[in-house]
Structure formats: C-alpha cells, structure tokens
Amino acid sequence: MIAEIFADKVSLGKAAAACGAAYIRRAIAARGSANIIVATAASQFELQDALLVEKGIDWSQVRIFHLDEYIGLPADHPASFRKNLRARLIDKLPCPPAAFYPVDGNAADLGKVIADLAQALHTFPTDVAFIGIGENGHIAFNDPPADFETEEAFLKIQLDEACRRQQLGEGWFASLDAVPRTALSMSVRQIMKSAAIINTVPDLRKAQAVKNALEGPLSKLCPASILNTHPNCYTFLDQDSASLLKNKP
User: Fold this and answer.
1) pLDDT level of residue 117 (50, 70, 90 thresholds)
2) Cα angle vertex 184, ends 219, 71, to 5°?
C-alpha cells in the first residue's frame, strides 16, 4: 500500500481525486468505459468535490457503484448513503453517468438487491474504488471481525456499537437508538477485486485505525489491514490521521 500525507483535507482530496481520475481516464481510453465504486461518508467530501472538476473524464461512459446502505432507511432520510451520493456527486456531474447502481436497503426483497448488484459487478469489473477507513478499522460496513473469505459480493451486516457511534458523532442521527443496527455492505473480497483502490482517510479520530491498518498485522479485527495486500492501493492521509504512525511515508 502506497501512503502519502497532506497538510489538510482539501489538498488530500485533490490528490486522491487526481490519482483515481487517472485510472478512470485510462480505462475509458482502453475500452471506452470505466467502472468505479464511490464511498459516501464525511471523509469523502473533499475527494468528491475535487473529482467533479477533474478534466478529461467522459462521465457518460462511467458506471458508478456505491459501497453500502442501512437496512430499512428510506431513500429520502438525511443519512441515506444513496441520497447523499446523488446529491454530492451524481446530480452534479456534467452529464448523467452510463449507469448508477444504488444499494436499496429499504427494498422489500433484499436478496434480489444483493443478486442484482452481484451480477452487475461481475459484468462490469471495477477499475477504481474510492473508499475510506472507519474509526473501528472497517472498510465499507465490514465491521470487525470482518469476513475475509466470502466470495459474496454484498452481505447483510450487523453493525457494531463503535460503527454506530461514529455515525452519531458525524451528526447523521439524533441519538444512538436512531442509528440502524443492520446494513447491506459490499464484501471485503469484492472491494479487493478492484484494479485500483483510492483510500482517503482524514481526521484525528481515524488515527488509531490508520496506525492499526498500516503498521499492524493483517487481522480481521482491523479489516482495513487487508489493504496492505492489494497491489494498487493508494492511501491519502492528513497530518491528524497520520499522527500516530511511527514510520511516516
């Protein structure tokens, strides 16, 4: 895993977007289209803003997937990931993307949602995944101890308390009781199938998770540690998130 440290979240976001955009342009040049995964979290805001102004991307040739969604949360809820991804990225693109594959956690048949997403991901292998790391070390909603073995593309996840407290702390919900306890999440192995991974992790509250992921052992107790095994994973940190690292890049 290649890691870089930046002075602030804005410069971090610009660098991460530039790195990911290069993979998007390369895929479009090679075969006429690109397939990407985009995370929806506060840590991704600066990256998404920067991605919108990257030059030379024909978004009409880009298929967009996203990572996860709460089960049972309506699409118009302020914390809905598909709502936020539409508002912050999809609706701001200069043209509609080739396709957008939302994770509908409020569907009556979640099994069909999972099957349809799995088929789409199989048909359109991921060129670049834009992800982050949670305060508990999760990637997507794969909370510890994460499943590193399953080949299922999406899983029904029981969210741990640390994850739910992060969502509360970020201001998405009024109380811990209001934070859903379950979610649909892209699996670890599915994320790792991406040709490239852009891992954007700002903020002091992520410092321990960053240290565990970059300097700790490969462990299901820190799901992000598996990113060290990916051949094209780029991690972008700010001074705060990198503050506990002994061996700074």
Assistant:
1) very high
2) 135
